[in-house]
């Protein structure tokens, strides 16, 4: 009898997906011996209700483009097709239901997002469904994280990933300002952004 499949779950808005996301997923894949990482673009993220988010189909397709070259990465339409607000607890429950065999889930998120975990819907249920990998960058205030986050919880681990000072917010700002984003996102994602004139960039 083999071990349960170790499935990494990389949730995010991916507006747009960038090299920082990909590096984090790859680091988690190797550090935790994962069999695969599934990227789950959010549908209607309830925590980002204060700003307009790019339609989910665009974010889904950019994520497919960005991950296509890695055979151990895949992309789920689970949240894109769900109506109403997106909650992590619902997604983890559904991924467990969809698994054909026994599966062990590892939810990969940023350390800052991990600090908000107790503001999420059903935090204890979320922690019972998956092991949480909180990605930190070199220079990150790990002491603050350890103080505020539930790192004493047996299902929470911190993972140091290479410093990539790239953010989706900055990429959207750059596109709007007509500045280059080459090498910040995969080439196919940049082409997609230009083709569909996302983020107010125009041609």
Describe the structure.
- The protein is an alpha/beta fold.
- Helices cover 36% and strands 20% of the residues.
- The chain has 8 helices and 8 strands, in the order βαββαββαβααβαβαα.
- It has helices at residues 19-31, 56-67, 88-98, 111-115, 123-129, 142-148, 168-176, 187-195; strands at 5-12, 36-41, 44-45, 73-75, 85-86, 103-110, 131-136, 156-160.
- Strand 1, helix 1 and strand 2 (36-41) form a beta-alpha-beta unit.
- The termini are far apart.
- The relative contact order is 0.18.
- The mean pLDDT is 87.
Give me the secondary-structure topology.
Elements: E1 5-12, H1 19-31, E2 36-41, E3 44-45, H2 56-67, E4 73-75, E5 85-86, H3 88-98, E6 103-110, H4 111-115, H5 123-129, E7 131-136, H6 142-148, E8 156-160, H7 168-176, H8 187-195
Helix pairs in contact: 2-8, 3-5
Q: Which key terms come to mind for this protein?
A:
8 helices, 36% helix, two-stranded parallel ribbon, alpha/beta, 20% strand, single chain
